Amino acid sequence: MSFDTLSSERSTIHPVLGPDSTSGFPPLLFYRQSAASDLGAMAKRAGVRYLMLTHLIPPLGAERQGPWKIPGGGLTEADYRKAVETGGFTGTTHCRNRPREPAASIQVRMSAYGP
Fold first, then answer.
1. pTM for this structure?
2. pLDDT one-digit tens code per residue, 15-27
3. C-alpha angle 9/56/50, rounded to 5°?
4. Closest by CA position to 36, among listed 17, 64, 63, 62
5. Which residues in the chain come in under a pLDDT of 50?
6. Terminal Cα-to-Cα distance of the chain (whole angstroms)
7. DSSP character at residue 10
8. Euclidean distance between CA atoms 37 and 45, whole angstroms
9. What is the DSSP letter of 17?
10. Strands of 31-76, DSSP E
């Protein structure tokens, strides 16, 4: 059985908050989440065409994550997509901040159930 979509059910964290950044975000908190680049690598290995990122840290457009300032300002979906691509994924990436917030133009098909 093969699937076209990989969906992250855990928090997805952007490397802008990583230990090498100037954000001051604690490494212990950073490494408890799923890094966007790691999810990109997993999606590549799984051979899926679509990757859905949810529970974004930091949320799209946010200037801060709690008390920590986001270096360079709020992130866009393109920023998350670029982080995913560093993991080797070249398919389509969709982002949404919260599980109930609809993502734009989601077209998810599982090949196990036909076209």
1. 0.80
2. 999 999 999 999 9
3. 60
4. 17
5. 1, 100-115
6. 14
7. S
8. 13
9. G
10. 34-35, 50-53, 56-57, 64-65, 68-69
